[in-house]
Design brief:
mainly beta; five-stranded antiparallel beta sheet
């Protein structure tokens, strides 16, 4: 389980179940456990207004450098 936070204000954005190794480029919507984000059109934002990613349908394309994460990744 990963906790994804805003890089600007450090608020929680998602609780996310990451499976497999590699970078966090996409967050699949079915793996998001809790969602604290604000949606504005196709943009996914922190409550402070900082853009975290872009909604692409089944996943959210994350913008590198706009978020941090902590937690453990489940190995395949």
């Amino acid at each position: 389980m990963l906790i994804i936070r805003c890089a600007k204000c450090r608020r929680k954005i998602f609780k996310y179940l990451k499976i497999g190794k590699g970078h966090l480029l996409r967050c699949w919507k079915e793996r998001i456990i809790k969602d604290f984000s604000v949606k504005e059109g196709s943009n996914v934002k922190c409550p402070c207004g900082h853009v975290i990613g872009v909604d692409k349908g089944k996943w959210i394309k994350m913008k590198q450098g706009n978020f941090t994460f902590s937690g453990t990744i489940i190995k395949k």
